[in-house]
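[User] At your convenience, examine this fold.
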Amino acid sequence: MSTNDYVKFVTQQVVSYMNSPKEARQEKKQLKRFERPPFLTRWFGVLPLSVALLYKAVKHRKAE
């Protein structure tokens, strides 16, 4: 990809972004935020989930 093609692509993206209504941009941003996985899962994978499940299991055993 040449520099000219790249500049053309970026310009098209910026123009399409600027031409879209503000409400549509905000709605798209909210949808993207809801689809994103939780912070701990995103950064540390399944490890926080396994620790949470282990903690709940131990807590449940102590209650009995």
